[in-house]
Input
Amino acid sequence: MCDRPDHIRGQAGADFLKVVPTVWEETRVLDAAVAHYVLVARRAADGSWFIAGLTDATAHEVEVDLNFLGAGDWKLALWRDEAASDAAAEAVKFEERRVTRSGRLKLRLSPAGGFAGVPKTTATPR
Output
């Protein structure tokens, strides 16, 4: 999603850019292989987490450890590569998944692809 704004407007995944902060309180590298892929979690000032990963020119199967999340159930908004991403980088799929801190998020990253996610707690405030 890095490009000129007029190339991004109306593209799948552009809505993620509306919610992602520009300043972070904490960054954690969850997994990485230098020059191959990186998986990170970042915490914003309001305590919300964002996760992302990107890869080199090779497709990778990755598992994101979600143990940085708090207890309970979370709803993950996820923008990820879809099967067509191998040939068309703009092929982005949006989905929502239920996750927990004890779970692992399994994803296939297309060559030069990646994902971004925003976990939100499903707990009811008291």
In short: The mean pLDDT is 88. Residues 5-8 form the longest helix (4 residues). The chain has one domain: 5-121.
